[in-house]
Amino acid sequence: MEVMFGPSGNRHWSDSISGRVVAETLVPGVTINEVARRHDLRPNHLSSWRRLAKNGKLVVPDLAGAEFAPVVLAPEAAPVAVPSERAVEIIYGAITICLDAGTQPDRVVEIAHALSTTP
Question: How many domains does the chain have?
Answer without folding.
Answer: 2
